[in-house]
Amino acid sequence: MIAPTMNAVAVDRARVEAARVLVVGDAMLDRYWFGAVDRISPEAPVPVVLVQREEERLGGAANVALNVRRLGAQASLLTVLGDDEPARAVTRLLKHEGVRGVIGRDPALRTTIKLRVVGRSQQLLRVDFENRPDHELLAQMLDEFRRVLPAHDAVLFSDYGKGGLAHIGRMIELARAAGKPVLVDPKGRDFTRYAGASVITPNRGELAQAAGPWSDEDALTAISARLRRECRLDALLLTRSEEGMTLFDSQGALSVPAQARQVFDVTGAGDTVIATMAAMMAAGLGAREAMPIANRAAGIVVSRFGTASVSYDELFGAAA
Question: Looking at the chain, which terminus has fewer C-beta neighbours within 10 angstroms, N or C?
């Protein structure tokens, strides 16, 4: 049975600003080339883009950390980058945004770049530059994780399936033993590697890949209950696009409807959801209190182009 919906309630700014979130995961660099499209190439039936402006943004787990920071909370990012120019760009952007970097370097790693070519406000092409590591990158950061963990109120694992979080069980164990809420944005078919987390936040496709499809709400509730039991999760937050979100926990299922005024670009919306959940839980809220706030944040961010974020004033000014 789906419970009645809830409205987002403003949280005191001082509580949010005091909240400290440690983000762990795969960081990337998002590059945008914006230009004009006036003709078709004579070499092939493709548009010719005359690039007029270039932009760099934090991507992957770095974008999650940025979302936490833009909300007003304190953010640290524990990640491994290559020893290359994109890594230096990520480090520079983190410093500019006030995100503390706890960064390891691996010369064998090529820092991931997602290059988007945009013409007439439409994404025409995305080109990815990356390589697959032959070892688990973040395993070498376990000592650093232990060192910085006590200074944070919540831990967020942002898994982009790039190999950095192949085995994160030990970090989850350490965080839960220290009494920290642990949130995971999952990837892949096997959610058991996130065992013991407080909240995982799959979208519909990710949940179906891990647990199989469902035909109705009763079947979805049963699937979620099974996953929570098998993975020892306190809660599972399913993001459902135009259908909003549903939180499954020991009290049952709680849904909130989507609040997007106009959907322009869903890029990074999942980052905003989990970053808002983590910031609010670090500020002392429970998952059921944090979910409507995360839903409101997602509704704001999908009205913007590319990887985006939302500020405290935008989020709670509209909620007040």
Answer: N
User: Nearest-CA neighbor of 125 among 40, 44, 47?
Assistant: 47
Distance CA 136, CA 142 (A): 11
d(CA 18, CA 259): 27
SS (H, E, C) the chain: CEECCCCCCCCCHHHHHHCEEEEEECEEEEEEEEEEEEEECCCCCCEEEEEEEEEEEEEEHHHHHHHHHHCCCEEEEEEEECCCHHHHHHHHHHHHHCCEEEEEECCCCCCCEEEEEEECCEEEEEEEECCCCCCCHHHHHHHHHHHHHHHCCEEEEECCCCCCCCCCHHHHHHHHHCCCCEEEECCCCCHHHHCCCCEECCEHHHHHHHHCCCCCHHHHHHHHHHHHHHHCCCEEEEECHHHCEEEEECCEEEEECCCCCCCCCCCCHHHHHHHHHHHHHHCCCCHHHHHHHHHHHHHHHCCCCCCCCCCHHHHHHHHC
> Is the Cβ–Cβ distance between 259 and 271 less than 8 Å?
no
pTM as predicted: 0.91
Comparison of pLDDT for 305 and 229, the residue scoring more: 229
The domain locations on the chain are 2-29+59-111+132-319
Active site residues: 271
Residues 162-208: tens digit of each pLDDT: 666 766 899 999 999 999 999 999 988 889 999 999 999 999 999 99
